[in-house]
Design brief:
FAD/NAD-bd_sf, FAD/NAD(P)-binding domain, Amine oxidase domain-containing protein, binds flavin-adenine dinucleotide
Length: 309
């Protein structure tokens, strides 16, 4: 749910969502969670025209759904969710070990030690989770992970500005293309106040995988050309930004939800264990928390409990 700061235009700078473009809410518990902990003002519906191109190359309406985004950027949601929590950002945990009394101790890459935890819940993508477990001499957990996880695919991302607009009223395209998976008008999302239009282009997962080491200039040119060609947009683009996601989308659409290793008191969660997507990340975490509640490791919520702040 990342946003990238855009170059300053006419004295003001905004940002574009370079990862998740929008999310859907199918699980009512997800909506209640967002409303209660992030607040209704941190997200809203992105209503617009979304087109999908079938294998026969015919453009159709993308299936109807409520599509939600953070306001004024995707990160508004995670920012709002973090306000009542103690979070240490910018720290990379390198290894875990059990200190006095069997409590977990975490060591970061700068040698900092974070001590005294009953349990550890890991949320990084699978490759980093596996690396962390191996560095912690938890090979049996890492090996167990290895057979369960799906590989994540890369995603090249181009953000491009059209200073005088594109002239299209379509907010998102999903073309039948070998190169391009998605193109969305970021400026058409609620709460964005951009000069001109900023579009976000996502490369096809297989194409991105095959081109992770391709010259970024070449990637930019190919994705932009493909977008202009499939959309028929003739407006002149100006600024562009590029981002390479190495771990973007899981191949598998289903998964075990979460993992819990009772002997070690280590839990693993993340969207990649629940078919990808923002709601998958929530469902994965929700499943693990329910399990911890049933084990008495975290208190079950009281029906009338007030939100702690
Ligand atoms: C290009 C792209 C497009 C997407 N489009 C959509 C979409 O349209 N709709 C949708 O629903 N979903 C989409 N997704 C998926 C969505 O973004 C994810 O499902 C969601 O962000 C996953 O959340 P998460 O918390 O499981 O993992 P992440 O968001 O990956 O969070 C993992 C965190 O762990 C941290 N970390 C890693 N290693 C360590 C370590 N050793 N120590 C400490 N911290 C560590 C990372 O820095 C990161 O902050 C997209 C993703 C990408 C990349």
């Amino acid at each position: 749910m990342a946003a990238k700061r855009l170059p300053e235009i006419a004295g003001s700078a905004s940002s574009a969502d370079i990862g998740a473009q929008y999310f859907t809410i199918r699980n009512p518990a997800f909506r209640s969670f967002l409303d209660q902990y992030a607040g209704r003002e941190s997200y809203g519906e992105w209503s617009g025209i979304f087109r999908f191109q079938g294998a026969d190359n015919v453009w159709q309406q993308l299936r109807p759904a409520e599509r939600f985004v953070g306001i004024p950027r995707m990160t508004a949601i995670t920012r709002a969710l973090s306000t009542s929590l103690e979070i240490k950002a910018g720290i990379r945990i390198q290894s875990l070990d059990q200190g006095t009394g069997g409590l977990w101790r975490l060591t970061d890459t700068d040698g900092g030690v974070h001590d005294g935890f009953d349990a550890v819940l890991l949320t990084p993508p699978p490759a980093q989770t596996e690396e962390l477990l191996k560095a912690s001499r938890l090979d049996s957990l890492a090996n167990d992970l290895n057979i369960r996880i799906s590989r994540l695919q890369a995603c090249w991302t181009v953000v491009v500005r059209f200073p005088t607009g594109t002239g299209t009223d379509i907010s998102g395209y999903m073309p039948n293309s070998r190169l391009l998976h998605w193109a969305g008008n970021n400026s058409s999302k609620p709460g964005r106040e951009d000069e001109g239009e900023w579009w976000v282009l996502h490369g096809d997962p297989d194409w991105s995988d095959a081109n992770t080491e391709t010259d970024p200039e070449e990637v930019r040119r190919q994705l932009l050309d493909e977008f202009l060609s499939i959309s028929g947009i003739t407006a002149e683009p100006s600024e562009t930004l590029l981002h390479r996601w190495l771990y973007a989308r899981p191949r598998a659409r289903t998964g075990p939800g979460h993992l819990w290793f009772d002997d070690h008191r280590i839990g693993i969660m993340g969207d990649w264990l629940e078919g990808g997507r923002v709601e998958g990340a929530f469902n994965s975490a929700d499943g693990l928390v329910r399990r911890l509640e049933s084990l008495g490791l975290v208190p079950a919520p009281q029906p009338d409990a007030e939100v702690q702040s």
